[in-house]
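Good morning,

Attaching, inline, the backbone tokens for the sequence recovery test we're adding to the shared suite. The designed sequence is right after.
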């Protein structure tokens, strides 16, 4: 039985003070709840959010990480720096990193392999654009993204990887893939992972859905067989929107 995993990607929102206040509110409401919850603040907010999350079951993650150990890489953040803070989880391959900052599949694979080598847990994002979906390339795109990103990743290391399917056309637009469309894409990805790693790895793999998840659609999405959680953007910035999504995973 796969345990629901709800993650909040705050993107470039919330100050350290605001983030700490939100996590304290979440922690109080989630006490005793049997669900895996993660928040990913901006790098500058991580220390304050970690302090606020202390004693709770909320995972604090980074939104990105370098594929380099250290050196002259201005603006980058290393695994070693994150681990020293106490961060062991990271989002890699988010569509905004791909589209705005030119991170291609090969680069994402380098990040995945290096982060795994440093003992980190990964939420690996995949997903197609509207043009790719409309032109019938959904499976082609997802196959390429998964196969390249996971090149060199062992079956044992798959225990530390969560996949997040995020159709790019549904991120921040208010448009959401139907529950049937999302579940179908998740089922395809799970089948792809089975072809690469076998049935046991595929059945244990957590696949989140990301793309305008909100309280009004969370229950229907999370009720589908192959949707094991959510990677939430805008709705993760306030407790009154994020908590109902978490509650939907418990129903």
């Amino acid at each position: 039985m796969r345990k629901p995993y709800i993650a909040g990607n705050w993107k470039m929102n919330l100050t350290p003070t605001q983030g700490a206040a939100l996590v304290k509110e979440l922690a109080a409401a989630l006490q005793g709840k049997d669900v895996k919850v993660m928040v990913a603040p901006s790098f500058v907010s991580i220390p304050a959010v970690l302090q606020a999350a202390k004693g709770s079951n909320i995972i604090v993650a980074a939104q990105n990480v370098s594929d380099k150990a250290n050196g002259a890489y201005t603006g980058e953040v290393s695994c070693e720096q994150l681990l020293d803070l106490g961060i062991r989880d990271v989002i890699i391959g988010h569509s905004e990193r791909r589209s705005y900052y030119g991170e291609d599949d090969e680069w994402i694979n380098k990040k995945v392999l290096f982060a795994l080598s440093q003992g980190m847990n990964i939420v690996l994002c995949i997903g197609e654009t509207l043009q790719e979906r409309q032109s019938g390339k959904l499976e082609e795109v997802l196959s390429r993204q998964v196969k390249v990103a996971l090149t060199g990743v062992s079956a044992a290391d798959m225990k530390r990887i969560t996949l997040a399917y995020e159709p790019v056309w549904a991120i921040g637009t208010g448009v959401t893939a139907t529950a049937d469309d999302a579940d179908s894409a998740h089922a395809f990805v799970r089948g792809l992972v089975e072809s690469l790693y076998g049935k046991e790895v595929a059945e244990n793999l957590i696949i989140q859905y990301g793309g305008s998840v909100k309280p009004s659609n969370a229950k229907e999405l999370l009720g589908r067989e192959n949707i094991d959680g959510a990677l939430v953007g805008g709705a993760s910035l306030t407790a009154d929107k994020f908590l109902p999504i978490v509650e939907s995973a418990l129903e």
